Amino acid sequence: MKRKGVVIFAIICVLFGGYTAGIYAQPADILTRRELEQVEENSIAIAETVLKDTGREGQYFIQDMDQVSVYYGNVTEGQEKDAVVAVSFGPQNTVVTVYAADGNGYTYVGDMGDFYDVRNIQFIPVSSEGRDVIIIKETAEQAIGGFEVTDLIRGFFYNDEKEFQNVLQTPERIETMWNNEWCDNDLQKDDNTMCRITEETEAAWDLDGDPELNISRYQQYLTLYPEEGQTLIPPGEEKFTARGRRVVTERFYWSDEWRRFILGEAVDTNTGETVAIIENRDASPYFLAGFQDDAFLIYRRDGSTDIVEGNTLEWVTPQL
Length: 320
Prior knowledge:
The protein has an eight-stranded antiparallel sheet with strand order 6-7-8-9-10-11-12-13. The chain has a five-stranded antiparallel sheet with strand order 1-5-4-3-2. The chain is globular and about 60 Å long. It has three helices and 18 strands. It folds into two domains: 5-262, no CATH class; 263-320, SH3 type barrels, CATH 2.30.30. By secondary structure, the chain is mainly β.
């Protein structure tokens, strides 16, 4: 089946675009313990410090600040828990930073980047590393070539280079709808079919030993044939017919060798090197709509990622 270019572009924007973890500026001030203990009444002062420390004073404006949330976990190797500070400037713009306890206050450690709507932050301990992975649950809503809402689970680890490395990224919920007429595909320009993809998941952490994330994905592909001339139907206002359903299970486990969460290992026959598998692209619910890749997202020793075809891999761990 031909790919629907606009829809796939939107998916890629949600899953892979726009998030760079790093340190953008030198710290301007400390956050006091009192400020972080009384977040609501000190939210403006906290947000101002975050904007200064991250060099975002010209990117966001304090009058647009919506909410400040503070979470505590063992992010660095300090004796006290670190503070993870999330400052929201609306549903599309949240800045997430880390501050380490230092005397009477907290000093700036680094910036994990810009996120959409951050729903929650939790900490998953990795005993072999002596510190936690920061798990950010994020909701992205987009209307690029279709209506799309995606909940993501994203994990960050403070590595030896003192950078926040993205060590986990997987969808937790997907709701997408598009009309085939909107797609950049001549073969479907007269196809008025409304298509809908849904994925709901059950996700559970196993912390007995090195952490594992076990996910069951409940996926559906549905269609609707609108009346003539009707090409825009808000989700839920019409009855869609299910065309395909399936359940996909995945296990992401922490690898001390790769220092990240992986699905497995294989040899890339194009290069002869062993690589970590970090995404099975055919586990996506879009598989039910005919978007089949037989491809995997791999992680190389040098920290780079690539998408490779499944027939170019020789599996070291059980094949996915």
